[in-house]
Amino acid sequence: MGSHLAILRKQAVSIVDAFDMHDFVIDSTLGSWDGNVYERMYEKALTSPLNQKDVPDAYYKYLRPLMKANL
């Protein structure tokens, strides 16, 4: 199977492009047509719901009690 993957890898981009799916549909920061991986990753991080607050609610709910506990 490993040898088949090596052969397939060379053709992977062409195979995926054959489906003619637009970047909007795929919603991939790594697989966009223009190759601006780092810019897209940064933009995605800025708009992520996880990054809308300085400290996420999960910190106060899960991590802070653990850090304050006398283990």
TrEMBL record:
Pathway: Lipid metabolism; peroxisomal fatty acid beta-oxidation. One of its GO terms (biological process) is lipid homeostasis. It comes from the Eukaryota. Pfam families: ACOX. Residues 4-68 form the Acyl-CoA oxidase C-terminal domain. Belongs to the acyl-CoA oxidase family. Keywords: Oxidoreductase. This is Acyl-coenzyme A oxidase (Acyl-CoA oxidase). GO terms for molecular function: acyl-CoA oxidase activity; FAD binding; fatty acid binding. GO terms for cellular component: peroxisome.
